[in-house]
DNA sequence: TTGTTCCATAACCAGAAGGTAATATAAATA
DNA sequence: TATTTATATTACCTTCTGGTTATGGAACAA
């Protein structure tokens, strides 16, 4: 028995969000939250070919969301949620903006009477 | 002055995560966190054509992350972070899995000695 | 050894994504 | 009215994505 692919790369938000953008992959992650699963086990409930699932797993793996093991002929997948924390970290920087969504429309109407204001981007 | 596109659609995680998967779009969102901006203002710092930015804005709009206004010839974009909350909600369901990332490798090694366990998917 | 199970890989395809340049449109300005 | 400004739209191109079938290889089982 072995383990491959040590030292998962630092979370790449591009890859992480892209991986999460597919419903099949999110379902796979949810499934893996209940325990490791082989490719075959994952392929069953989704009416999809086995190679398709292998592809999805590879996308999840490159995003660091899944690690693979080796167990006889199987290559069990295990959830690695750390990149999700990175995604949340990024999203949290916007937290201020969804607490005050009340009079947001009023704000918009108001702000547009003046000219558009400040700001220099990345 | 007017406002268009009322009643933003309920957050679609597919669209939200896909929108977030592009670094230009994340940069646009960060920029908008500092204040509304017109298309031209957004296009400047990114060395990209104006139509490209318009496309990105449309993706963000469909994901509900941005609302557009009308101010004379301008169509200022405003951040709407609510869909981010939905994204976080989904991600938070995995929170258990990134607190215990210590001996995760050991866990993996251990679990693979037995057969793969339980679980029935979506 | 032979077959079977589990998975990966290759080749292929249609459609979506991300970019461009060129053009059209709408509102402000001269 | 003519021009300029701000944005959208169109047409086009290339690359990526998500799926397929077919095939190959490794490990177990008979």
Automatic annotation (TrEMBL), chains A, B:
Protein name: Winged helix-turn-helix transcriptional regulator
Record PANTHER family: SLL0088 PROTEIN, TRANSCRIPTIONAL REGULATORY PROTEIN
MF terms in GO: DNA-binding transcription factor activity
Pfam families: HTH_5
Top-rank taxon: Bacteria
Gene3D superfamilies in UniProt: Winged helix-like DNA-binding domain superfamily/Winged helix DNA-binding domain
Domain HTH arsR-type: 5-120
InterPro entries recorded: ArsR-like_HTH, HTH_ArsR_DNA-bd_dom, WH-like_DNA-bd_sf, WH_DNA-bd_sf
């Amino acid at each position: 028995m072995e383990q491959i692919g040590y030292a998962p790369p630092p979370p790449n938000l591009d890859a992480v969000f892209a991986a999460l953008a597919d419903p099949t992959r999110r379902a796979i992650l949810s499934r893996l939250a209940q325990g490791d699963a082989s490719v075959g086990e994952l392929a069953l409930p989704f009416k999809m070919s086995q190679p398709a699932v292998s592809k999805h797993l590879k996308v999840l793996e490159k995003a660091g969301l899944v690690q693979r093991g080796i167990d006889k002929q199987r290559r069990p997948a295990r959830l690695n949620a750390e990149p999700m924390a990175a995604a949340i970290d990024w999203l949290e920087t916007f937290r201020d903006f969804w607490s005050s969504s009340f009079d947001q429309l009023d704000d918009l109407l108001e702000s547009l009477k003046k000219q558009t204001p400040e700001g220099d981007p990345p």
